Amino acid sequence: MASVPAAAPDRLSLRRPDDWHVHLRDGALLQAVAPATARVFARAIVMPNLSPPVTTVEQGRAYRERILQAVPASLGFTPLMTAYLTDTIDPAEIARGHAEGVFTACKLYPAHATTNSAAGVSDIMRLEPVLDTLERIGMPLLIHGEVTDAEIDIFDREAVFLERVLDPLLQRHPALKVVLEHITTSDSVQFVIEAGPNLAATITPHHLHINRNAMFKGGLRPDFYCLPVAKRELHRLALRSAATSGNPKFFLGTDSAPHPRHAKESACGCAGIYNAPFALESYAEVFEQEGALDRLEGFASLHGPAFYGLPVNRQRITLVRESQVVPPRLHGNDAAGSAVELVPFHAGERLGWRVELLD
Ligand code: DOR
Ligand code: ZN
Fold first, then answer.
1. Would 314 be classed as within a structural domain?
2. Could you tell me which of 200, 197, 194, 193 has the C-alpha nearest to residue 175?
3. Active site positions, annotated
């Protein structure tokens, strides 16, 4: 007799997930966006690209405090802070931040690669003393992996980075733990699979859902503009198979990056997609479409802690098969306190899952 495929479940219980890459911003915008992350995720690696960036232990400590003030304590949310690497940052400051439990990881932005990256690293070789320190103390390096040369096509900047920067860096520092953030290409998928166990990657929900055509469908669509920019369909398919493969080198990092609507719908619009409010539902949609719902927990809740050497969360959450329409607009305030609109990822679309709130 032919075997009957198991019916897809209507409820999915998983260990509470973590977001290994998020932008929580600051000021009133932080108040508006942080609860969406804290409601679902137990921990989040918080990006340091504020203005000015988080480069000192005191700044990291103070920012962590502002985040904790912005979310209800009952959610039990832990922000994991990162230090923003510059050409001149003192390795001793980073090591102290790590030893004092303030900094979990360091973030490498190549200078001018993206939002608030002007103070980033202009020459990777200037970072050698920092990389030696990270390697020695076992502190992960998180990388925005794009070259910034204007003559390199924007769709090729990630692939060129692998060859010109990342490969030599890993050879110079074989014991350094590296997360290649928000990967967007089949080249990165392949690179990560073939590299040693010290290299992992995060994958965003938007890069699993959209390819570059989304930015141009019927006109220019700033809501789908982010960095690294979405690539061709073949790359999206490679990301989907990596995320759903069960390979522990791939884990959840939303790169939720809110900008007020007016800053995106502008002649020079900001890069970033605000996906935090429906992030887990968005991933669940992909895993279901790929017939891999049984692998969502690994990707969302287990692989990240294993790579970072942290315990998995004890709490559990439930995804319920229940359709909901994502609001076309959300409301908040910008960093200066003015009322702004935010357009969430999947605005106006129907999603098939809903996260049941934590008790
Ligand atoms: O799209 C992006 N937005 N990519 C980044 O790397 C930064 C982020 C932001 O901070 O807006
Ligand atoms: Zn980011």
1. yes
2. 197
3. 255
